[in-house]
Amino acid sequence: MKLNLQPKKPYKKLKKKIPRINFSNYQWMFCALFMLICSYTGQAQNISINFKDAPLERVLKEVAKQANYEVFYTQKLLKDSKPVTISVKNSSLNETLNQVFKNQNLKYTLTNQTIVVTVSKEEERGNVLIDIRGKVVNSKNEPFPGVSVTIWGTNRTAVTDFDGGFSFEKAPSNGILDCSGLTIEKKSIAINGRTDLTLVVEDKIAAMKEVVVTGFQTISRSNFTGAITKVDEKTLNENINTNLSSALEGRVAGLMFQKNPSGAAADKPILRGMGTFSSQVGYSPLLVIDGLPTELTLDDINPYDIESVDVLKDAAAASIYGSRAANGIIVLTTKKGNGKMKVSINSDFFIAEKPNLRDMNYASTSDLIDFEQAVYNRERARFANTATMFSSYGDIGNSSMKYYSPLYQLNRDLEEGVINNADYNSTIAQWRKNDYNKDYRDNVWQNEFRQRYNIAFSGSTSRQNTYVSLNYDESKNRIKYNNSRAFNLYAKSSFQLNNWLNATFGVNGTYSNDDVTDSSYSNYDIQKRYERITDDNGNLVISPFVGISDGFTSGSIINPYVARKISTLSGFKSTQFNVLDALKEGIEQQNSLSLRTFANVKAKLWQGLSFNTQFQYEVRKNDNEQYYAIDSYKMRMAINSLTGYNPTTNAYTYVDGFSTGGRYKQYSSQASNYSFRNQLDFNQDFADGKHSINALAGFEMRETFVPRSIEQLRYGYDPVTLSSAVLNNLALSQTGVSSYIYGNNRTLSALSRTQQEILHRYFSVFSTASYTYLSKYNITGSYRVDRADLFGVDPKYKNRPLWSTGLGWNVSNEDFMKEVKWVSMLKLRATYGINGNIDQSTTPYITATRRNDNLYQSLQYTNITAQPNPMLRWEKTQSTNLGLDYSLFRAKLNGSIDVYRKYSSDLLATTDLDPTVGALTRRINAGALLNKGIELSAGSEWYNNGDFRVASNLVFAFNKTTVKKVTRAQSSASVYVASPADYFRENEAYNSLYAYKYGGMENGYPYVLDENGNPSITFDANGNPVSTSIKTVTNPDALVNMGSLIPTYTGSFSQRFSYKQFDLNFLFVFSGGNVMRKETMDLGSDLVNLSGIADRYTDTNRNENTRLYVDFDESIRNYAATISSQWRNSSANVVDGDYIKLRNISLGYNLPKAFATKIKMVSAKFTFQVNNLWYWSAAGNHIDPEVYTANSGTRNLPSPRTYLFGFNLTL
User: Fold this and answer.
1) How far apart are CA 104 and CA 78, in angstroms?
2) Concatenated DSSP letters for 816-844?
3) For residue 272, what are the contacts with CB-CB under 8 A and spacing of at least 6?
4) CATH number, span 11-124
5) pLDDT score, position 104
6) Among the residues of 89-165, which ranges form H helices?
7) Helix, strand, coil shares of the chain as percentages rounded to 5?
8) Given this model, what pLDDT does residue 140 score?
9) Closest Cα to residue 542, out of 640, 628, 633?
10) d(CA 84, CA 61)
11) Does the first or last residue of the chain, that is N or C, have fewer Cβ atoms within 10 Å of its Cβ?
12) pLDDT beyond 60 at 1166
């Protein structure tokens, strides 16, 4: 039945506008009291109306208008009403209404400035009492906890729970429900005999009404004191996201994603800086799905299954998770059904360009040839003849054989008379035209193409709520023959078994299959730049040798002279190579199955009191297979390595069975975990909402188990018959066999003989509570004690509690703020608490590995792997947070400001020990870190004229991480320079860039200064280094701390323009405050390929550049590595790491709703997007800090531009 709550105009337009009058304080109080009395008695209104046979509805509207009341009724009630004839003047409201309803089978009541029309007592005889249940949600289907639902005309009121739910027993079937709350517009709904109802209410202030999810509870932001950022479904779906990490990038202040510069691993989320020294603990926030922690990563989760993401930052928000909360929490809430069955279809297509190698700052092929020729000439000059020089590279039967390049071989052939000068010059001229990098890009790389399809079914009834999604994801990756396929299933159903019992069950499974080529062929520099992959006609160019070993035996890389010799011996395999052939060999099949099942049963025990039990089980299984055929490059090289040959008898000796087939390797691993939680929840308002209490308590059990892996390795394998050879693996792996090529024994790799299983169990008890008074003042607290199996034996460490407390003040609810119209919402927050971290690689017990020595089987021995730590305890993080949430100018500008301090102590760090205890170092709780920062967010839809809308959002975060305590001092400067993430200095930034203080340069030789300001090189009168003066600077006091390698500030700016059905979105991300080393050439090596080689300093080309190794004076060449290291790591070669990127730009088109309805659709949206379109870097020189190894100063492949197209259809 249609409700006529607002027939044509909003109720507020039925009210009279009362002009503001200035009174004295006492007059105002008297007037307010008088008006309050009048509103309750209904006697003060003067009603004058005159109607004859008018419809009841028309009469009621006029009465309500004159009385400054609202009127509530349903069309069904008025359907059989009688026309009204009435004429009154200056009559009271009650008197007027009595005459209006005199001959009607209806009655009225006056409640809260509203005239409520109901059936008369005679009609009520047919009214049936029923049990009803319902839910209060907003337009996004987000629940509203703490809202009052009242049956009209009675004092029966229910307060919605965390899920927005409420229920009444024996409610009138034709009654009316009124929904009211501080942050919502009042809403009423007729029961009309329904037992399941959903009240969709409008928000008064979006920032105050927002419901946040901590995983343990769902609570209104107005009652929450913690620092939390919510990313809703609308924001998540603004762009086409490659994964959930990209969906969150730039949306949460303080959440940064540490990029893997080479792209070989997923981005790592880091929240509010580093909180531990231990990689075993990890730096990423704990991931929680629907209330329970998971071992999955963000990239494992289908983003289309996620309804919202809540990021818990401070102790008040996260400490309920105890020993896993120090890095923060990311809580994912999955989707559920809502109303009628709905089908949502998504299809996305991604095309990523090949990376541009022009940004890699490489020298040209011609310059590289000239440089390598200069290197050859310099080396050749040190020997009397060619034979003497090349003897150092080894011949057949030489175990110290070394690789040399085709250019070296060309020079050798020239000097030995194999070719003449014309042949030499012709070959060099041709080589100058070649570009192996370009060949690799054109022939090995391909534009990445990814296609993703998702279909979801969702719906709900009064007794059931169901959501099911199917997702298929397929990718053709950059390197040919590398493919990925993944299928994901997610299903969840909730059942309302009765009014007090609800059960939810679900499963989430992913099966993936990847084809991965041999990583030996993944680099475009595996051959010299002047070599080729294909000729101008596209035919393969076969190289007679290549500098790649087999990787299966102890045989090293051969040189071209040896390759040429064995090519004449029929018993050896060919050494020829082409990368396009090799890529097809040894492709690894990686299969993975991940399964998560979960159940949740919730029982309402009493008004406001409920019991909740949850269980989750996760398992992941990986199976990898790899096969190299007998004629593959690596198998050919392995067979050659283990082949014996007698030139006198021309007899060959082979390993029995080894060369009869290929190599097959299989590896299987598995991991599982479960979580079981029971808790009591209490949520109740008292004294008409004056007091509000939200509390829970419970316990949790968790177990993680990693069984031993299963591995097998077979040689002589035939994939058709599945047969393989039986080898003497012990002899082959330990003593090996005689090799003709290398002149001594060569061994064959065997499987690892180490087996391990990992089992950990945890038990926790926890509680949390919040109290709100007058919807203005909040106080919260939480308490948790965690126990683990391998943990400290001292009770004072085993039972150390992790806790938090917080205060909140809803300033905008104060009376003195009512006249401040431009402030829609203002809330102050303050929290303090202690979180923890756990590292199970350290234990209170001595740990050891029992072994059998394979050479002497009868003997057993034990390796001690770790000394005991009886004082082991949780890593502890004390967190203080001051925050402000605001909504200004009628909610046009919304955001928050947070200032925090995180002090992490008892951190596990390597500490020097007294050698008499049996070990030099031990990881104990001895370190400390301090994080201090500020976070800002601001968003506004600052222009909206209906058709055209403009919205902006700014996110900014600053964080500084300082090492406050470390107990292991290093005496060598080089370790701080090379590994700043492993070696620390007190009161300096974590992961600092340390540099030698640059002194200057003489004749192309750079030098640095020691701790006393003395140069590392002394020069003679001619400006040449004195070899005996060159020294290595070793004192750490000589180093200069140039700043943090980790960005100290991050942020984003997003801009949205909407015009009618079109949406245009821009997302800029920025980062900075950190430093990086410049890309510099290695002065101590001849293996350089950067563009500066042609303009290097030489005796004939004196400039501001440095010399390279080829041009070093012979007397100091042994010191070149020292000079190079100190130059490359000097303060002269440091640049800023700041950058701005246009991460993506997207254009979306929403099909007009009227047209979508005509074609039987609810909605349709089409999106085109471009990622990585533009960036600016303070470092310049085409350096992209995101894909740059900052401490070593190494470029990696640039982020490719990606084009995306997607559409969403809802049926």
Assistant:
1) 10
2) GGTT-TTEEEEEEEEEEEEEEE--TTS-S
3) 254, 313, 328, 900, 902, 931, 933, 959
4) 3.55.50.30
5) 83
6) 93-100, 121-124
7) 20, 45, 35
8) 67
9) 633
10) 13
11) N
12) yes
Phi, psi (degrees; rounded to nearest 5) at 56: -55, -40
Question: Structure tokens of 1203?
Answer: 């084009």
Say yes or no to pLDDT of 532 above 70: yes
At a CB cut-off of 8 Å and minimum separation 6, what does 1066 contact?
Answer: 1054, 1055, 1056, 1142, 1144, 1145
Q: How far apart are CA 226 and CA 314, in angstroms?
A: 6
Q: What is the CA radius of gyration of the chain?
A: 38
pLDDT tens-digit readout, 805-861 = 999 999 999 999 988 989 989 999 999 999 888 776 777 777 777 665 544 455 666
Neighbours of 592 (CB within 10 A): 17
CA angle 1050/1056/1058 to nearest 5° reads 175
CA count, 13 A, side-chain hemisphere, 16: 12
Nearest to 769 by CA among 761, 778, 760: 778
Choose among 1047, 1108, 1065, 1061: nearest CA to 1083.
1108
* Residue 669 tokens, joined: 């691993």
The model's pTM = 0.82
In one letter, which amino acid is 1065? N
Where does the pLDDT of residue 20 fall: very low under 50, low under 70, confident under 90, or very high at 90 and above? very low
- Asked if residue 312 lies in contact with residue 214, where contact means CB atoms within 8 angstroms, the answer is yes
- CA 1165 – CA 343 distance, rounded (Å): 14
pLDDT tier, 916 (very low <50, low <70, confident <90, very high otherwise): confident
Which H or E run contains 967?
Answer: none
> Residue 766 pLDDT more than 60?
yes
CATH topology of domain 129-204: Immunoglobulin-like (2.60.40)
382's enclosing H/E stretch is none
Please tell me the predicted confidence (pLDDT) of residue 1062.
95
Amino acid in position 243: N
Q: Which residue has the higher pLDDT, 517 or 215?
A: 517
Contact 216, 310 (CB under 8 A): no
Q: How far, in Å, CA of 143 to CA of 147, rounded?
A: 10
Count of CB atoms situated within 10 Å of the CB of 1060:
12
What's the rounded Cα separation, in Å, for the pair 1010 and 236? 53
**Residue ranges per domain, the chain?**
11-124, 129-204, 358-442+519-582, 969-1211
Q: Which of 283-292, 746-755, 842-851, 1128-1137 has the lowest mean pLDDT?
A: 842-851
Q: What six digits make up the tokens of 991?
A: 């992961």
Say what the alpha-carbon torsion angle 999, 1002, 1004, 1006 is, to the nearest 10 degrees. -20
**DSSP structure string for 1138-1181:** -EEEEEEEEEEEEPPHHHHHHTT-SEEEEEEEEEEEEEEETT-T
Helix (H, G, I), strand (E, B) or coil at 289: strand
Residue in 613, 380, 618 with CA at minimum distance from that of residue 509: 618
Under 8 Å between Cβ of 1171 and 1126: no
Rounded Cα gap, residues 771 and 1062, in angstroms:
45
What's the CA gap between 876 and 837, in Å, rounded?
A: 7
